[in-house]
Automatic annotation (TrEMBL):
GO MF annotations, alphabetized: pyridoxal phosphate binding; transaminase activity
The organism's place on the tree of life at top rank: Bacteria
Cofactor: pyridoxal 5'-phosphate
Name recorded for this polypeptide: Lipopolysaccharide biosynthesis protein RfbH
GO biological process: polysaccharide biosynthetic process
Record-linked InterPro entries: DegT/StrS_aminotransferase (IPR000653), PyrdxlP-dep_Trfase (IPR015424), PyrdxlP-dep_Trfase_major (IPR015421), PyrdxlP-dep_Trfase_small (IPR015422)
Keyword Ion transport on entry: no
Keywords, comma-separated and alphabetical: Pyridoxal phosphate
Family, per entry: Belongs to the DegT/DnrJ/EryC1 family.
Amino acid sequence: MDESKIYKTILELTERLILKRKSQEKFIPGVTRIGYAGRVYDQYEVMNAVRASLDFWLTEGPYARLLEANFRNYYKSKSFILVNSGSSANLLMVSSLISKNVKNSLKKGDEVITPATTFPTTLTPIIQCGLRPVFVDIEIDTLNINPNKIESAITKNTKALFIPHTLGNPCDMELIMKIVNKYNLFLLEDSCDALGGTYDGQLVGTFGGMASHSFYPAHQMTMGEGGGIIINSPQFVKIVRSLRDWGRDCWCEPGKNNTCRKRFDGSWGGDLPIGYDHKYVYSELGYNLKITDLQAAIGLAQFDKLPSFVEKRQKNFLQLYEGLKQFQEYVLLPRWSTKANPSWFGFPITLAKGLDRSKFTIFLESKGIETRMIFAGNILRQPGFTHIDKRISGSLKQTDSAMERSFFIGVYPGITNEMINYMIDQIGKFLRTKI
């Protein structure tokens, strides 16, 4: 059998195997776990992964370049750069703000406003880069930063906002952009939970200079591990890619040389001798945060499904919302702006005072319904963050309320109508018993 026939046979057998596995999946109420999130895939992701493994291009390569181009076109952005996680995307965005090659770059001690209800790796880059986080309270029904409290937190040291769209619910970008433009601030969006969502018809992630995405299995699409950065401000394109690629000054794609035509006769600054090999010139304090081409191959198949993934998340969310309206005396249901069309990451529930969240979540888990906290809750109460240098603007009352009374359940596309109805039924059983 020649090579092409072997290749074709491998792919055909892969497809048959995955289709057989998928055909055996079924939901058994109370037995099958309903995840808060999960990977949703079919034969195409696996076949792409097999193709990439047979190509054996282990580092970033042709699949990655195609996926970056797809996202760049999707966002109509200046660039889209793939990285190895959403956390790395956040680190690179903040690191770029302190680059000497950025106009009005941030200096040690400059302040960045961010909500106190957050994910750790939204906050940690601010600290790691020597900047000072300034914490603002959230709105309990959106779980997003309270936009009406941002302006009072601004001082002469405030240089940036880092705003997550919690659980895929877009922040009030109209008011936030007014503040950003009024005070000439950098804006970073943590859009890891919000891929595909819009505010006033504009895609989340396109408002600030940069925005992050995560492609961990919990998110709207996955590559296993992986992330990306939407770059809307052109000054960050070369800087972010350099920071991702060891800090090198060279911009040649993998497998290419001498794109600058000055590889061995250029003058690159610093104290380098003229003609120093451009491939070994470093203009940033960088990392190695690239993905593999195998990840990107999986991501390409997922990208094709993105519209259907978003639609299914929205459908599941609304089905839960309608089903839980009957319990609004006992639970606070989420609110979103009339201008927003969220791509929901999860369905948040905040219990009325007097109800025991631990008993509720333990009950749901015992029935096979996974629950999760609103990430770190009030992150300043987390053991790793109690002694960080910071400033708190005003009260964090709603942040503490979310930490004590809020949690979320899943809406990801693997959840069926039957599962949603089961979730509503079990939530009702608990509330009717405990009230």
